[in-house]
């Protein structure tokens, strides 16, 4: 099953969906974080909730900061016991993130949040219309406020996710601070003590050329 093509959609596990209903983020609570990584959707193997490994997902969603401190990895996908295809379902994203070299002392500062507040399977590029239909306006407003409300957050976003945000803005009242068209150079914006920095997506091999710069930006921001 793991090697078969997976159609994009909401994850079939009621238990996993309930976890996201309670906490539609990973790691630190976004409002309490100083470093935020904003992605499109949290992607999982379709079978993950049926495997004994799911106990790590439960533990992680309960307290992502404590999980990082306990296992010294920022996400369960990086535990040696991970039993699924390591080239899909969100695992490449977190494996590339690990290359930044952050240890558990960073756990309290970092949050991962997605445009969708539900877990998914498959690749959103196969059905963007369905992806956009899953968007929850109240969740998007909370993401919007991470940037608009006074704070001290450095928010990393890939170009593809920024484009999704521009598309979502067409039918909502969120992300009005984004331009209609992104500049050719990396998009950067600042407001109320917060900063947005465009980077490559962590699922792309292009992110490797930015790892050092991302680490420098994180350390410099936390030293402020």
Adjacency order of strands in the biggest sheet: 2-5-3-7-9-8
CATH superfamily: Uracil-DNA glycosylase-like domain
Assign the structural class, choosing from mainly alpha, mainly beta, alpha/beta, alpha+beta, or little secondary structure. alpha/beta
What is the correct CATH architecture? 3-Layer(aba) Sandwich
- Strand tally, please? 9
As a whole number of angstroms, the C-alpha radius of gyration is 17 Å
Report the CATH C-level class.
Answer: Alpha Beta
Low-confidence stretches: none
What separation lies between the terminal Cα atoms? 48 Å
Run of helices and strands: EHEEEHHHEEHHEHEEH
Tally of individual domains: 1
What is the overall shape? globular
- The tally of helices reads 8
Percent of residues in beta strands = 15-25%
Q: Quick check: average pLDDT?
A: 94
Q: Which keywords apply here?
A:
224 residues, alpha/beta, Uracil-DNA Glycosylase, subunit E, three-stranded mixed beta sheet, 8 helices, globular
Question: Topology of this structure?
Answer:
Elements: E1 9-10, H1 14-22, E2 25-27, E3 35-39, E4 42-43, H2 54-62, H3 64-71, H4 91-98, E5 110-114, E6 119-121, H5 128-133, H6 137-148, E7 154-158, H7 159-169, E8 188-191, E9 194-199, H8 211-222
Parallel strand pairs: 3-5, 3-7, 4-6, 7-9
Antiparallel strand pairs: 1-6, 2-5, 8-9
Helix pairs in contact: 2-3
């Amino acid at each position: 099953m793991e090697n078969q093509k997976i159609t994009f959609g909401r994850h079939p596990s009621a238990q996993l969906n309930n976890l996201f209903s309670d906490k539609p983020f990973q790691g630190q609570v976004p409002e309490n974080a100083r470093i935020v990584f904003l992605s499109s959707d949290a992607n999982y193997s379709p079978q993950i909730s049926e495997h004994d490994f799911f106990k790590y997902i439960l533990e992680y969603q309960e307290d992502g900061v404590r999980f990082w401190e306990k296992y010294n990895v920022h996400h369960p996908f990086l535990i040696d016991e991970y039993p699924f295809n390591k080239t899909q379902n969100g695992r490449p994203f977190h494996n590339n993130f690990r290359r930044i070299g952050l240890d558990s002392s960073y756990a309290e500062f970092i949050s991962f949040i997605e445009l969708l507040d539900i877990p998914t399977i498959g690749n959103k590029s196969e059905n963007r219309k369905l992806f956009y239909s899953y968007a929850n306006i109240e969740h998007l407003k909370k993401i919007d406020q991470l940037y608009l409300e006074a704070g001290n957050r450095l928010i990393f976003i890939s170009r593809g996710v920024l484009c999704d945000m521009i598309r979502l803005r067409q039918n909502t009242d969120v992300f009005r601070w984004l331009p209609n068209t992104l500049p050719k150079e990396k998009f950067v914006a600042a407001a109320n003590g917060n900063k947005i920095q465009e980077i490559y997506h962590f699922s792309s091999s292009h992110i490797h050329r930015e790892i050092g710069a991302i680490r420098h930006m994180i350390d410099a921001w936390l030293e402020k």
